[in-house]
Amino acid sequence: MSTPTPVLEIQKLTKHYGGVKALTDAQFRLLPGEHAAIVGDNGAGKSTFVRLITGAEQPNSGDILLDGGKVNFESPLDAREQGIETVYQTLALAEDLDVPANIFLGREITRLNLGPLSILNHKAMREKSAAMLSTTGVKIQDMSESLRGMSGGQRQCVAIARAAGFAKKLIILDEPTAALGVQETARVEEIIKGLKQRGIPLIIISHNLRQVFDLVDRIWVFRQGRIICSRLTRETSPEEIVGLITGAIDPASLRSEEAATC
Ligand SMILES: Nc1ncnc2c1ncn2[C@@H]1O[C@H](COP(=O)(O)OP(=O)(O)OP(=O)(O)O)[C@@H](O)[C@H]1O
C-alpha cells in the first residue's frame, strides 16, 4: 500500500543562530488526519521548529511542503493564509472582547467594506461562531460575555475552536494545557480527541507524556537540535520515549520499517 501524500513534510530544515545550532537537518511528516506530538528536553529545538513552520522565523536551509508542494512562509499571517492555524500559549485572544469578536479577530466579516469605515456584520459573526463552537464541542453559556470572565480552560477551548474553524490544512497546539487544572485539562483533551474524529491533522507540543500517549498517533523526539526519531504511539512506551529524550536509548537500536523513522 502506498503512503498518502503528507499534509506537512519537512526536509532538512536548519536554523542556526550564530554558533548556536538550534535545529539541524530536521525531517518530519504529518499524514492526513494524523495527530502527532513533539517532545524533547528544554533547548532541544522544539520551539525553533514551530517558529519555522508557522512563519515566525525563516530557516537557513531546508524545505517545507504542504500537500506535496513547496512553500515559503514570510510571516505568521502567510502561514495562516496557507492553512496552518497555531494556538500559542498566549492564546492571542483579546480579554475585553466577546467570543464572536475573538473568533473573528483580524478576520472580521463586514456588511459594507469601506476600509477603515467598514461596517461589521455582527449577526453573521455570532452565527458562525456559534456553529464553530458547536462543531468543536465547546459549550459557552453566554457568547456576548467578554473573555475576562472566563476560565483558562474556556479560553483555550475558544482558541482551539477558532483554529479548527479556520484551519485549511492543520492545527498546531503549543502546550495547550500547561496552565490548566486537572478538570480543564480533561475538557481540552476531549476537544482535541474530537478534532481527531473530524480528521483534522494536528501537531501538539507537550511535556506531559501521559497526555501525549492518550492523544496522538505518532511521537517525534527532539534532542540537542535534531529530530532523532519518530515512534508510532502504539508501538512505544513512556519509558522508551524518556530514554530517547535523555539519550539513554540510541535511536539506531530501534530502527524498524513500520515503527520508526530515524
Ligand atoms: N533567538 C535565538 N537566539 C539564539 N539562540 C536561540 C534563539 N532561540 C533559541 N535559541 C537556542 O536554540 C536552542 C533550541 O531552543 P528552543 O527554544 O527551540 O528549544 P525548546 O526545545 O523549544 O526548549 P523549551 O522546551 O525550553 O522551550 C537552545 O539552545 C536555545 O538557547
TrEMBL record:
Gene3D superfamilies: P-loop containing nucleotide triphosphate hydrolases
GO terms, molecular function: ATP binding; ATP hydrolysis activity
Annotated SUPFAM superfamilies: P-loop containing nucleoside triphosphate hydrolases
Protein name: ABC transporter ATP-binding protein
Entry keyword set: ATP-binding, Cell membrane, Membrane, Nucleotide-binding, Repeat, Sugar transport, Transport
Native source organism of the sequence: Limnohabitans planktonicus II-D5
Domain spans labelled ABC transporter: 8-249
CDD domains hit by this protein: ABC_Carb_Monos_I
Entry keyword Nucleus: no
PANTHER family: CARBOHYDRATE TRANSPORT ATP-BINDING PROTEIN MG119-RELATED, SUGAR ABC TRANSPORTER ATP-BINDING PROTEIN
Keyword Nucleotide-binding: yes
